Amino acid sequence: MSELPAAHAAGAGAPAPENDAKARMRAALTAELPEEIVLHAEEDLRPFECDGLSAYRRLPMLAVLPSTIEQVQAVLRICHAHDTPVVARGAGTGLSGGALPLESGVLLSLAKFNRILDIDTANRRATVQPGVRNLAISQAVDHLGLYYAPDPSSQIACSIGGNVAENSGGVHCLKYGLTTNNIVQIEIVTIEGERLTIGSPALDSPGYDLLALMTGSEGLLGVIVEVVVKLLPKPELAQCALIAFDDVRKAGNAVAEIIKAGIVPAGLEMLDHPAILATEEFVHAGYPTDAAAILLCEIDGTEGEVADDMARVREVVEASGATDIRISRDDVERALFWAGRKAAFPAMGRISPDYYCMDGTIPRRALADVLIGIGELSEQYGQRVANVFHAGDGNLHPLILYDANQPGELENTEAFGGAICRLCLEYGGTITGEHGVGVEKIDQMCVQFPSAELTQFHAVKAAFDAKTLLNPDKAVPTLHRCAEFGAMHVHHGQLPHPELERL
Amino acid sequence: MQTSIIDALRDTEDGREADRILRACTHCGFCTATCPTYQLLGDERDGPRGRIYLIKQVLEGETPTEKTQYHLDRCLTCRACETTCPSGVEYAKLADIGRDLVDRQVERPARERWLRWLLRHVVAYRRRFAVVHALGQIARPFLVGRLAPLRQKLPPRRPRVDWPQASERSRLMLVHDGCVQPVATPNTNAHAARILDQLGIRLVAASGAGCCGALSQHLSHRAEAHDFARANIDAWWPYIEQGAEAIVITASGCGASITEYGYMLRNDPAYAEKAARVSELARDLSDILADEDLSALADIGGGRRVAYHPPCTLQNAPGLHDKIGVILAGAGYKLTHVSNAHLCCGSAGSYSILQPEIANQLRADKLSSLGADNPEVIVTANVGCQLHLEAAAGVPVRHWIELLEPEALKPVRAAAA
């Protein structure tokens, strides 16, 4: 278990005396950077000990808050020279612990890079710094009739650099794609401190598609310092249908039926009963609190397209047993329908002191079965769960409710979460849809991938970062770690990676 | 969020309250998006989530230094974060507890202590502040060179508007007078009284009432704030017993404080009930007027362009309702487009005096948003915002109620011309 990021054990421990390595790194950094941007005291570092996944906490050795690319280059160059690992952090809203610091590493905050550098309406592009908030891009081009399509639930706060690192999705990705489909170029700083432009303003460029490789690389390959995003024209009309069901299975089947009918909604989301209750209390979006599940189905396009598709959606969901269908009358009502969904995760804070947000994908046809399976697991583990997810692309977000102040509850929650991941895999799904692997699902990576593939992942990492200094021990587990994990979690009597020697 | 409050605090009122608030926080970071200082400074410690963490450390037994104090001081207490928090974290209440705890452990430099003492002991008392203000007006011509910035802090004198003649009206309302407003912008309440008089409402300011307590509350002297609250309740209570319908608030900053009296004095058996009643009765002037027939005012605006700056205390504090835009539009004014209306102007009570650098940066940003659509006049609903913006604005800055009295428009037009 030595490799387990047992951050929740760290808590508010005794301050470590400033050791040699820390003093050396601090001296090296402050020789080139202003002293006040290099944080070293525990008091200052504590607020950086976790991101949006606060169950995992670890105090960084040092945190640096640069405001120029030259400063970022200096940090990376110095870390490289001193063999010190670096973890980049944007808005700190990630849900898989991707920005969890290392005790022996430097935390590199990019929050000061929050300016939109250029808006190119002719080419419908915007050049932004990595710390720019996702929603701020759409707000800045709203008056031009444009927007940036990927819209994760945390879009009000999450930053574009983190979106690229995690290949974030959102409710609109069903129709408009993930982050990778909506950016054309990025600039990174390599671990050696060199600036590198990847991608190009053109639609395609020769050579390997390194931009696709970088998107979703979770900070393992480089530090993003600039992003050129695509802007889309706002659709002429968008309408959202709020559809209620008295049975989760009917709602799950309705999703499969909508897609089968050839309709491509701009968003197709589902909330189950506990999620409806929690969000309704905060947002008052008018969700029917007696429904077993609701679907939010958004259709956008020209007026004719929306009218046609909406009529077909109505037909399909009525045939699937919908108990109530409301279609937004204007943009205010549409925004209200969505407001509940967007605030669903943190609204759990109102019904439970803590929640653990899972992120798995499954084939759409398995939605109902997996939901029922999660319900059974909930009883088995004795913990409440609320389900909020991107139903259209089969991306589940079960939210396990727990109380971190109760001894043992976090551990039970994690075990419950692991069981949900395995359930997704059994139905042919994956362990993460959009939140990334980070530290949270690193063990499940061992279940998802055989060692040959993991070996190739490590080879890619080595091509960019031979010393393994950029966000190490995240996203891609070492084979050794997988062997240990496999020894503890024997699944259906089969050991994963039987070729490796167990410790 | 997981908490482990130290034994010494866990069973105190503050400890229980802080724990309750902290437990609701899920560390999602939504709050950082609407926090003016986080957006300006990009430092976790200068956003609500980071400050919550700094406070949590102290509650968990870490000894704070002047650095924690520094970042807590830089919070505007604008409460914009509370409006974006999906988990309902009551940040402002936690911040009050945190500041108090830190200030008890970290002594401030003499100059700061002195400045804070002055704010609490001079500005919060109407007569004392009036003396200083009068001296300042005399000294105005001499405020040159290094003293020139002080001139900004002195609002220019304006001709006094008279209160209506005492008359028997069927309806009675109290007006909160406060500390700074009657000295710096006394016409605000006079205009309010005149307008309400026309609507058949007698407005009275109770003698003996004073500062709402917000200054002390935000300078880590909560017991002193509670004393101000009790004094106001005592002054208002006879009128409430006579049937005063409401306590009219013309400075939203005070309103935010008075609507919290019920919470502040919840553990004071002698005052808890009265305080809760006072909090219920506190209503912003815009909320009162929105319920009245204002058709007589329909054309007085004549299409003049007005930029409205909603104070944080009207936008973000629960309990006070902002209906100013609707009233002004109904009175024939054209409201200009103002971007980022949710961001604080930097006034924030005593903040503009204690944190001038950030306050002035926020003001510059705010004035550029307010001025973008060419208004003739900027209006707001809080004396603090009004004076802070006025000191650097190129157009007149007024309390919005002034626009509802035609004679008040003359100086506006003259100044704009």
What does this molecule look like?
The complex is a heterodimer of chains A (503) and B (417). With 503 residues, chain A is α+β, with helices and mostly antiparallel strands. Chain A folds into four domains: 7-109, Uridine Diphospho-n-acetylenolpyruvylglucosamine Reductase, domain 2 (2-Layer Sandwich), CATH 3.30.43.10; 116-233, Uridine Diphospho-n-acetylenolpyruvylglucosamine Reductase, domain 3; 237-440, 3-Layer(aba) Sandwich (Vanillyl-alcohol Oxidase, Chain A, domain 3); 442-488, no CATH class. Helix content of chain A is 35%, strand content 18%. Chain A has 17 helices and 20 strands. Chain A has helices at residues 20-32, 42-45, 69-81, 134-141, 160-166, 173-176, 210-214, 248-260, 273-283, 303-319, 331-342, 344-347, 367-381, 409-426, 442-448, 451-464, 479-488, and strands at 38-39, 62-64, 86-89, 106-109, 116-120, 125-128, 146-147, 183-189, 195-199, 223-230, 232-233, 237-245, 267-272, 293-301, 324-327, 354-357, 360-361, 385-389, 395-396, 398-402. In chain A, the strands form five sheets. In chain A, strands 15-12-14-13-18-20-16 form a seven-stranded antiparallel beta sheet, with helices on both faces. In chain A, a hairpin with a 5-residue loop joins strand 8 (183-189) and strand 9 (195-199). The model of chain A is unreliable at 1-15 and 489-493 (pLDDT under 50). In chain B, strand 7 (377-380), helix 24 (383-390) and strand 8 (397-399) form a beta-alpha-beta unit. Chain B folds into four domains: 7-105, Fumarate Reductase Iron-sulfur Protein, Chain B, domain 2, CATH 1.10.1060.10; 110-152, no CATH class; 171-289, Rossmann fold (3-Layer(aba) Sandwich), CATH 3.40.50; 295-416, Rossmann fold (3-Layer(aba) Sandwich), CATH 3.40.50. Chain B starts with 6 loop residues before the first helix and ends with a helix. Helix content of chain B is 52%, strand content 7%. In chain B, helix 5 (48-59) crosses helix 8 (91-105) and helix 6 (66-73) runs antiparallel to helix 8 (91-105). Chain B is an alpha/beta fold and 417 residues long. The longest helix of chain B has 20 residues, at 222-241. Chains A and B meet through helix 2 and helix 12 of A and helix 3, helix 4 and helix 5 of B. Chain B: Residues 16-45, 66-95 form the 4Fe-4S ferredoxin-type domain. Chain B: Component of a complex that catalyzes the oxidation of glycolate to glyoxylate. Chain B: InterPro entries: 4Fe4S_Fe-S-bd, 4Fe4S_Fe_S_CS, Cys_rich_dom, Glc_ox_4Fe-4S, Helical_ferredxn. Chain B: Its cofactor is [4Fe-4S] cluster.
